[in-house]
Amino acid sequence: MDKNYVVTKSNYFIMNSSYDLSLEEQKIILTLASMVQPTDEQFKPYIFKIADFIELLGIETQTKYTEIPKITKELMKKVFEIHEGKKLIQTAWLSGAVYEKGTGYVELIFSPYLKPYMLELKEKFTQYQLANILSMKSKYSPRVYEILKCNEFKKQGYIEIDIDELRKLLRCEEIYPLYADFKRFVLIRTQKELRKLTDIDFDFEEIKTIRKVTALKFYIKQNNAKKAIDEVAIASKEIEIDPLQEFDLIKQVQAIFKEDITRLQAKELVDTAKGNINIIKGKYEISKITSDIKNIVGWMLKAIKNDYQAPKRKGKFDSFNDYPQRTYDYDDLEKKLLGWNNRTDEAIEEDSQQLSMNSE
Question: Least crowded by CB within 10 Å, which of 10, 109, 144, 178?
Answer without folding.
Answer: 178
